[in-house]
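A protein record pairs a chain with a discrete description of its three-dimensional fold. The shape at a given residue is found from the number at the same position. Here is what such a record looks like in full:
>
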Amino acid sequence: MVNSKINLRLGTLVIGYLGILTEIVDISMLIYYGFLKCSYILTLWIIASIWNVSSELFLLVAVYRNNPHLLPVHLVTCLGGLIMMMITHMLVATSGVLHYGLVGYALFSIGFMFADVLIVLSFYHSEK
């Protein structure tokens, strides 16, 4: 039982740091390559990325301070960030910009959020 808690704790830490790294790379690549010319979509994308970084910071604070009561806050903000990102991806799809890297990133972000929610929810139930 103790070994599974350590593995879930390590998994949540890895997910937290990878989430922050993913969002930093996402914003830097978006600004550097300039995939999106519409400032409205770009602004919404940056707000969603900042929202996701704050969600991952909630996760790291909950794990390092041994406070499992913050994990539901992370889950709610994580799903809110996913909704904002999906709205952004839908706006990109309707704008006529066809870039297969953006489609791949959309699929990656959905899979990453799924893994994030699954691992954090498992860790939350093991801590309760």
The chain has one domain: 2-127. Residues 2-33 form the longest helix (32 residues).
